[in-house]
Predict the structure.
Amino acid sequence: QVQLVESGGGLGQPGGSLRLSCAPSGSIFSINVMGWYRHTPGKERDLVATITRGGRTNYGDSVKGRFTISRDNAKNTVYLQMNSLKPEDTAVYYCYVDVYPYWGQGTQVTVSS
């Protein structure tokens, strides 16, 4: 089965940067929306950012001005550049696409000094 494979998580410093990537393990057709959500224990899964095939973006309020989403349509790959990291960005980040399989397995991002 095709899976969404995330990479780039780990430990970041406050004020620092991390870059996440997500690509399918096989062929997926007709993806329009790709994006990232994040989950912290005890909270709902929150929108981080989404991007359409045409490049229209949408960001969660807490990351506007700090995170940038981009994609490579030829590779069906979505990226999340995270700058000016804050401890409250600590969460499991999930890749999302609007067709099966919909969600990745998640990658942990921890922001701590």
Residues 2 and 27 are 7 Å apart (CA to CA). The radius of gyration is 13 Å. DSSP finds no helices and ten strands in the chain. The longest strand covers residues 18-24.
